[in-house]
Please model this.
Amino acid sequence: MAGNADVQQQALKDFAAAKNARFTSGFGEPTWRKKFVHEGFRVIGTDRVPEFEADGSPKLNAKTGRQVMARSVVVHKLNRRWARVKVPGCGWVRFRLSRNGKGSELPKAKTFRVTYRNGQWHIAFAVVPAPIEAPDTGEIIGIDRGVNITAALSDGRMLNCPQLTVKERAQVRKHQRRAARAPKASEQKSAEYAKAARLKAREADRRKDWCEKTSTMLARTYGLVRFEKLNIKNMTRSARGSTEQPGRQVRQKAGLNRAILAQGWGLLRRRTEHKALGRVEDVPAPYTSLRCSACGWIDKNSRKSQAEFVCSFCGFTCNADTNAATNVAAGQGGIPRPRRTAGAGGTTPPEQRSNVREPQPSRVEIPLF
Model:
């Protein structure tokens, strides 16, 4: 079946750009698109609008002296929630305005992409949103990311990314069992896998919505946002090698990988940086969970459990995730340093100084340098 010429030409341009960027992008050679996975196409706007300089003057072509005309997507607003866009080969297509809810403005974009995922059509406009202005408070917040607690803030708040309910997880397992027992390449197998995929897509939509709302809250509330620096790609890689079969991939940490990816760590960090432009920093993760935020003493025995932190030197007690987030907010991480009176959180409180005892030489785990 013949397709639209503009869509095909844009696909060739995207492929050429991917081939030219294979050495600089870090992703290597472009891969083939998969059926039922990468269903979609990108469209360049057909409308022409004049371009202007930053000072408002017309943007002129250096050779011809004429005003530069840029492409724009042909889109019309129907009401508060619905609009329509002109798709080549399809005509006018209605879509729901999801950005900013009611009263959303029409996107001023040059291109848009139409995708088909899990039985639903989506349209995304290539628009660079304006960054959110920093508040006047100048407050600094530290964020410690984990599996049990998605994001622990240094002010004591605990934020959790929404997951599937117990009933929904049982439904996913039910459809996966039915698909595994169905005959190979049968309609029943495809239908059961599609039902499980729709439930997993619901979880992904909840995760994206939570990351968008949380990142907006962080950008509007705090002047500087500091994240614990994590290499998520390496943390979720398959374990390599075992005692019996060295050098081969094993699956003993597949459950941990799924749990990490379900938290949306990378998406939360990326969207916060987009909205709070220039106000997001990364703090090295080592020793942030072992350092006492009150006195700065580092000892692995201070971490009693996943949620309990009791300093072995000054006796300071708090939630372990909150203690790590406080260290992240203070920028304390990376190479361990000897204990000082003024640590990440300041001096030791007077009421705790009576309980301070000098550390024994056998308990010192950090070299003094």
Q: What stands out?
A: Confidence is low (pLDDT under 50) at residues 339-369.
